[in-house]
Amino acid sequence: MKRDRKETSEPPRRDDLPGVWRRELIETPDGSRDESSLVLWVQGLSMYCDIRLPAPGSGAVVDAFAGSIELSNEPGALRCHWRRELDWSTTPGPKDIGRLTWAGEGDARRMREDGVETDYYEIWRKDLAAEQGDSVARVSDEAGRIGYLARIGGLALWVRGRVGSRQELGAARDPEMEAVLARWSAARGAYEIERSTSPQRSNGETLLRAAQSGAKVLSISETGRDGAQAQCEWRVLHEEVIPGDRPSKGDGPAARAT
């Protein structure tokens, strides 16, 4: 696998990570490359969400996961372990650990991830930096499902775990895992769905109306496999909010209450 690169001397720091990262490239030892699939990693202070939607002909598969990261410093790199509480794959695999370094300079600077337990490398571009009031929340519903909701810079990524059966959840709730990408619409005062792992979801559908950081309950839309829709309440178990030492988004979505 080709490893040519130009790295800056200092590795990424913890404070560099919060934000929305878009993968530009993955390469594996057999020479396979994917530069076209939609892959977004949305990172908060420690909790994160990740969605991966394959481009036609890429050979990639749908993937999504969420949890928290564990960081440690290595010579010339930041070692990151993505602990997956929610995982699209139901088959145990190697730990998701990568060595993070900077590649390139100026506007061309990217973050490079080299696999530790699996041989690959990925190139990541930071699309949005986290701002004051952005957040990632870990939530639970009455059925015991766990979800993660990341809201950063007008983008929301919702990853909902699987549990139980259709009979236990009811027609409007899906027992399977789901990941949904949505963006803030000022005109509607809501996050509108752009992409989803669920075929029953419609683009433009409301995922979530604005909720102030610190809310104890979030109302998130759900569409069952039979098309039934409902607003489901999720209790916030833990929320990480970007503190005030970062630039504020002013009157952005995180600043308005439901």
Briefly say what this structure is:
With 258 residues, this protein is an all-beta fold. The protein has two domains: 14-129, Lipocalin; 135-255, no CATH class.
How does this structure look, described?
The radius of gyration is 18 Å and the shape is globular. The termini are far apart. Helix content is 2%, strand content 49%. A hairpin with a 5-residue loop joins strand 10 and strand 11 (146-152). The chain has an 8-stranded antiparallel β-barrel. It has an 8-stranded antiparallel β-sheet with strand order 15-14-13-12-11-10-17-16, with no helix packed on it. With 258 residues, the protein is mainly beta. The protein folds into 2 domains: 14-129, Lipocalin, CATH 2.40.128.280; 135-255, no CATH class.
What helical percentage do the residues reach? under 10%
| Oligomerization category of the chains in this entry | single chain
Provide the residue-averaged pLDDT.
Answer: 88
Strand order of the largest sheet: 1-3-4-5-6-7-8-9
Number of strands: 17
Order of helix and strand elements from N to C terminus: EEEEEEEEEEEEHEEEEE
Largest sheet: 8 strands, antiparallel, barrel
Number of contiguous helices: 1
Task: Give the domain tally.
Answer: 2
Instruction: State the separation between the terminal residues, measured CA to CA.
Output: 50 Å
Task: Return Rg in Å.
Answer: 18 Å
How big a fraction of the residues is strand? over 45%
Structural class: mainly beta
Task: Outline the low-pLDDT stretches.
Answer: 165-173, 254-258
Which geometry do the CA atoms define?
globular
